[in-house]
Write a structure and sequence with these properties.
It is a single chain. Helices cover 33% and strands 21% of the residues. It has 433 residues and is of the alpha/beta class. It folds into two domains: 112 residues, Urease, subunit C, domain 1 (Roll); 305 residues, Metal-dependent hydrolases (TIM Barrel). Strands 1, 2, 3, 4, 5, 13, 14 and 15 form an eight-stranded mixed sheet that branches. The protein is globular and about 65 Å long. It starts with a strand and ends in a 13-residue tail after the last strand. It is built from 13 helices and 17 strands. GO terms for molecular function: cytosine deaminase activity; isoguanine deaminase activity; metal ion binding. Keywords: Hydrolase, Metal-binding. It comes from Ferranicluibacter rubi.
Length: 433
């Protein structure tokens, strides 16, 4: 038997080592040591990690790469970011949004990021962002899966046009129902918006992903309502609660009630470590809150936690580079998730957990899965997170679509090596405890 491609001597995220991956017609057909067949192309992983692609389950592609237009966020707060976005929206053109989004997708592919769930603001009566990103979705479909969320940035009830435009966006082909209950004028309006949005999703058979309790206010508890409506409407497994930063400020007794409700409703929880720790706690002196949901506790209860990048060089976050390992790296620090098991869990949060939230078909490294793969300059997932490892090679449906040279430093040190490869610098016998 002859395959299109065989990747040899690969380490996998599930800790298997020295495995071969055979690919034919864009799909994986065998994953096992020592495949003896021939192939049109052979890639030697050389004991490095081969992973399924990275997934960003929470992003704002309509705003990406717009940093500095029309001005910078001087306070660094979430609310000024929303205000700044409101100033930018009238200036948007479809062509500019498409151009920025396509540039970002180029960057994403180079980082092995091949699936993105992007929220798109529907409060602009022109629906410029919606039209633009629907076009981008079609343009990039051969190399990146783009899933769109109808997001009423200015509030489903607070904005006079949001309710009508959200329905218009869904009719145009947007995939997921979004919302922002904590930005409504009152807590009651926020509660009503959760109910209304979940009912729309149930009626249309769609997924739900709400910006929920993105605040330092411990009394912002719309996640409780989201869990209730998910149960009432039979949406279990189809609903994501994004941000949930108020959970960082809630008292432990209330959280002991809340977490089981999230478990019962099978809600996917989506923290955004980079943006959350920058935007939250801005009104604190000391101690300063980190603004992260309780990731280790949720994971311990079996909740599907998937990390998002949220923003990249836009009104809310001036950094970012489409690197989901950077997101995982920040998460292990903010969540005190430094045990080997916790670091592996954070790698899963930007790969398989996110794929589950996305509802992505054919994802993984197993016979029958799409041959969408990333060869990393690292031996295992913990090392990949630690190093924010180079993506040496990115494959889509078995075809190489991006390559990055290995990272090698030249040294001029008496009695020391001439060259250095950082990925090789790790304890030879690292503890598995």
């Amino acid at each position: 038997m002859t395959f299109d491609t065989i990747i040899r001597h690969a380490n996998l995220a599930d800790d298997r080592m020295g495995v071969d991956i055979a690919i034919s017609k864009g799909r994986i057909v065998a994953v096992e040591p020592g495949i003896t067949a021939e192939a049109g192309e052979v890639i030697d992983a050389g004991g490095r990690l081969v992973s399924a692609p990275f997934i960003d389950i929470h992003f704002h592609m309509d705003a990406t790469l717009s940093l500095g237009t029309p001005r910078l966020n001087r306070s660094g707060t979430l609310l000024e970011g929303i205000q700044l976005w409101g100033e930018l929206k009238p200036l948007l053109t479809k062509e500019a949004v498409i151009e920025r989004a396509l540039r970002y997708c180029d960057l994403a592919v180079s980082q092995g990021l091949l699936a993105v769930r992007s929220h798109v603001d529907v409060c602009d009566e022109r629906l410029t962002g919606v039209e633009a990103l629907l076009e981008v979705k079609d343009l990039v479909r051969d190399y990146l899966d783009l899933q769109l969320v109808a997001f009423p940035q200015d509030g489903y009830f607070r904005s006079a046009t949001a309710a009508r435009n959200l329905e218009r966006s869904l009719d145009m082909g947007v995939d997921v129902v979004g919302g922002i209950p904590h930005f409504e004028r009152t807590m009651e309006d926020g509660r009503r918006s959760v109910t209304a949005l979940c009912e729309i999703a149930a009626e249309r058979g769609l997924l739900v992903d709400l910006h929920c309790d993105e605040t330092d206010d411990p009394m912002s508890r719309h996640i409780e309502t989201l869990a209730y409506e998910t149960q009432r409407l039979g949406l279990q497994g189809r609903v994501a609660g994004s941000h949930l930063t108020s959970m960082h400020s809630m008292d432990n007794y209330y959280v002991s009630k809340l977490l089981p409700l999230i478990v019962e409703a099978q809600i996917h929880c989506v923290p955004n470590p980079l943006a959350n720790i920058v935007l939250q706690g801005r009104h604190d002196t000391y101690p300063k809150r980190r603004g992260m949901m309780r990731v280790p506790e949720l994971m311990a209860l079996g909740v599907n936690v998937a990390y998002g990048q949220d923003s990249c060089m836009d009104p809310w976050y001036s950094f970012g580079n489409a690197d989901m390992l950077d997101v995982a790296h920040m998460a292990v620090h903010t969540g005190h998730m430094t045990s080997p098991a916790a670091v592996k869990a954070s790698f899963r949060a930007v790969t398989e957990n996110a794929a589950r939230t996305f509802g992505l078909d054919g994802y993984g490294i197993a016979p029958g899965c799409h041959a969408d793969l990333v060869l990393l300059e690292a031996r295992d997932t913990a090392e990949a997170v630690r190093m924010r490892a180079n993506r040496l090679m990115v494959l889509r449906r078995g075809k190489i679509i991006a390559q990055t040279p290995p990272r090698t430093a030249k040294l001029s040190l008496a009695g020391r090596p001439d060259t250095l490869e950082p990925w090789r610098y790790a304890p030879v016998e690292a503890s598995a405890s």
